[in-house]
Each structure stands twice: as C-alpha cells, then as structure tokens.
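Example record

The entry below shows one chain as it appears in the dataset: sequence first, then structure tokens.
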Amino acid sequence: MPTLLMCFDAPMQSWGIRSQFASRDTATEPTKSGVVGLLAAALGLPQDADEDIQHLATLRMGVRVDREGVVESDFHTVQNVPNTEGKNHRTAVTKRFYLADALFLVALESDDTRLLHKLEDALHQPRWPLYLGRKAFVPARPIPIRGLPGEHRSITQRPLDDALSLHPWLENQPRIRARQRATPTPPPPMWLRTIVDADPLALDVELRHDQPLSFRPQHRAYAPRAVQISHIPLPPELIDYHTV
C-alpha cells in the first residue's frame, strides 16, 4: 500500500497523552491524536467533524526517531481560575513539558490513494497554520518530505514498514553528521527507534490512549491504540544520503 511521508522537525515539540490542567506531559514521539490534529488543521476540518477525524485516525501510522529529543519543562501563569463552584478566581501556575531538538520521520499508510494525495496537497497549502503540539512550536522545515531515493513526491508506493527502513536519515545538522562520520571504517549501521501501529492481539505490543474519536473542546474522546516498539538498522549509504 502507498505511504505518505512527513518530517517533524522543530526546536520544540509537545505530544501530550495524559495532560491535566496543572501539568501537561509530552510523549517522546508524535502521538496519533497529535498527527491527526495536524492533518485536520491542514484540511481545515472543524473540531466537531467527528466522522472525518475518525476516518483520518484509521490510517496506519509509523514513526521513526531520527534524533531523540530531550524532555524539558516550563511554567505558565494562568489568571482568573475559578474553583469548582465557579467562585474565588485566582492565579495558578501550570507546568508544561516539551521535547527539545527532536526529529521524526512520520509515515501514514492507506489503500486510499486519493486520501493520501489530498493530505499531501493540504500539507503543502494548509487551510490553517500547522504546529507540532503547541501553537508556538512551528515546524523548522516543510512537513511533506520527498519519498525514497529516486522519488519526487511525498507519497511512496512502498508499504509503511519498508518506507521506515529505506528512507535516508533526515538529520541536517552538520555537527551531528560530522560526529556520525567519525566512526570507525567501515561504519556500523545506525539503530533507530520505531513506533508502529500494530495488531492489538499481538503479544509484543503496548497500548497508547491516543486514538482520537472527537476533538470537541468540552467532549474530547480517545480510544486505545496498540503499537509495536522496535529498533531498525539504517545502513551507512542511507546515513550519508542527503535529503532535501
């Protein structure tokens, strides 16, 4: 099945799973709800478009971590916070976590080629601004990325698992690339962490509660999602290959 490829690169990203008012967490990689939310913004879908949201969530998703980020936190001050009775408004301090310097290859697989092309076009010309978890966390480079070597679109005809294994390294920082080249000759393959949608009945899966059902502000709803976490080798020729 064809696969849409995206690059999530930004100085800061945030992918909450169990966020509460006073403390907002982040996963160490993009969540299904976060990716679907970004696609919905690109398409211009309203928050109450539950059927469209759930259809986007059926896309099989895989993430390859090309640069592990560092979890950091900051504080936000919120004014006029009421108590449970709607009285005694006060100022509250909330703690919010985010990922610094992370880089991801995100792949979406579907047999609906028309939908993938629609998403690709929307990512190139989004209806609403795109950001990686928070409105202040804008992408550092275009999200749609060229497919496998020799391909010129963001959609490859390779299935998701092959795309994650065969796509060149996304790293574009000369300092990090130079450090990788300093390894012994011949250089060993680089092992990258992957998180891929999986059969919930498989034995080696984890459950993530991030399958979106609704983005309505007062009625957000999510279902569990089974993922398989593993590491794949990236050979030297894909490490040295420069993507655009």
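Notes for this example: The domain at 3-70+99-167+192-228 is CATH 3.30.70.2660 (Alpha-Beta Plaits). The chain has one domain: 3-70+99-167+192-228.
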